[in-house]
């Protein structure tokens, strides 16, 4: 397994290939243009680097017949696409257990973003928070939501029904009706983060594929896979936890070490082995999140909170130190670049 700061599991590339063929699009030139060799993608230990993956999606999005490709992709998804994680989740006793496994081991699928399960009174949400500074084409947001709704439908024998789906992508002018047809609910566009909202009672839904012994076996395989992935890039594991912890206001080295089940000294040592420090990873994570949130138009005081600062002034000082620009100047600069 090659270390990649941001990467996606190889077999998803096979699904993309199948979906392209189904649409009558020759996949080989697109994969070649993106620099992706197809043969190794059958092996889940193959990871697709984010640059190659982005290039592939951009090439696909340029195809006139693939404007809703992210939705079409789900036609070829299967629990085994995600290796042992897919099977372990499918064998879970309840929908809640299924989702908790997906959240816990989501880095098997990709390290480009972090998946979380938000439980509130009257509503739950699956949410994807990106920490890759380079944006992906909109069809990736479509694909994330479509894939997870599909595998949840498979696991629940179509009992899983979202209330609302919010996509972190622009409004699709000519294809908007396809989205509500696919998801079977209201679909909102231009959201800061892609989210799937659903009834909390679905967490208690028993799954027909429940098999405790098989689930345990595949949990172990998944943990072994994660261990190899994390060993390849321990800083990515720290970043993932920081993304989750920063909005809570508790994101110090001791807190991160605790959730990673290592001592603070081990945390320091493993980051040093990777050529970085906890402070560097923390600042990089905050900077990438802040830039993303500013681009998406979130208020500065909310961004300060989401990135773990006690107040807006401290956030603004830190952001200027990282980028040489104030948050508002950065936002204006990005807006002007988008217009040009």
Q: Could you characterize the architecture of this molecule?
A:
The protein folds into three domains: 198 residues, H-NOX domain (Alpha-Beta Complex), CATH 3.90.1520; 28 residues; 64 residues, Arc Repressor Mutant, subunit A, CATH 1.10.10. Helices cover 54% and strands 10% of the residues. The chain is built from 16 helices and seven strands. A five-stranded mixed sheet has the order 3-4-7-5-6, with helices on both faces. The protein has a two-stranded antiparallel ribbon with strand order 1-2. β3 and β4 form a beta hairpin. 39% of the residues are buried. The model has no long low-confidence stretch (mean pLDDT 90).
* Terminus-to-terminus distance: 41 Å
Q: Mean pLDDT, as a whole number? A: 90
Biggest pleated sheet: 5 strands, mixed
User: What is the C-level CATH assignment of the largest domain?
Assistant: Alpha Beta
Helical content, roughly? Answer: 40-55%
How many strand units?
Answer: 7
Within the CATH hierarchy, at the fold level, what is the topology of the largest domain?
Answer: H-NOX domain
Rg (C-alpha, Å)? 20 Å
By secondary-structure content and strand pairing, the structural class works out as: alpha+beta
Tally of helical segments: 16
Question: What series of H and E elements makes up the topology?
Answer: EHHEHHHHEEHEHEEHHHHHHHH
User: How large is the share of residues in beta strands?
Assistant: 5-15%
Q: How many distinct domains?
A: 3
Q: What best-fitting shape do the alpha-carbon axes yield?
A: globular
Q: Report strand order across the widest sheet.
A: 3-4-7-5-6
Low-confidence stretches: none
């Amino acid at each position: 397994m090659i270390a990649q700061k941001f990467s996606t599991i190889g077999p998803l590339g096979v699904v993309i290939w199948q979906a392209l063929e189904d649409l009558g699009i020759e996949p080989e030139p697109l994969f070649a243009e993106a620099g992706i060799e197809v043969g190794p993608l059958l092996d889940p230990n193959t990871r697709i680097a984010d640059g190659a993956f982005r290039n592939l999606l951009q090439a696909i999005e340029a195809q006139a017949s693939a404007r809703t490709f992210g939705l079409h992709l789900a036609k070829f998804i299967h629990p085994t696409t995600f290796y042992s994680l897919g099977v372990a989740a499918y064998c879970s006793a309840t929908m809640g257990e299924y989702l908790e496994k997906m959240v816990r081991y989501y880095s098997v699928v990709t390290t480009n973003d972090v998946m979380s399960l938000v439980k509130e009174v009257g509503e739950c949400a699956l949410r994807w928070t990106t920490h890759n500074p380079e944006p992906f084409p909109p069809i990736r947001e479509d694909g994330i939501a479509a894939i997870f709704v599909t595998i949840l439908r498979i696991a629940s024998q179509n009992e899983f029904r979202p209330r609302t789906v919010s996509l972190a992508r622009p409004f699709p002018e000519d294809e908007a009706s396809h989205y509500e047809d696919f998801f079977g609910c209201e679909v909102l566009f231009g959201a800061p983060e892609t989210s799937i909202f659903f009834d909390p009672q679905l967490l208690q839904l028993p799954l027909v594929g429940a098999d405790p012994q098989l689930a345990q076996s595949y949990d172990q395989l998944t943990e072994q896979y994660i261990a190899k992935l994390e060993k390849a890039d321990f800083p990515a594991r720290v970043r993932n936890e920081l993304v989750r912890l920063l909005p809570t206001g508790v994101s110090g080295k001791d807190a991160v070490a605790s959730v990673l089940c290592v001592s603070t000294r081990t945390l320091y040592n493993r980051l040093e082995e990777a050529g970085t420090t906890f402070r560097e990873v923390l600042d990089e994570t905050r900077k990438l999140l802040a830039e993303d949130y500013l681009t998406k138009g979130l208020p500065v005081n909310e961004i300060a909170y989401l990135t773990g600062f006690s107040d807006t002034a401290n956030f603004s000082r830190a952001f200027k130190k990282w980028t040489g620009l104030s948050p508002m100047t950065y936002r204006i600069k990005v807006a002007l670049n988008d217009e040009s």
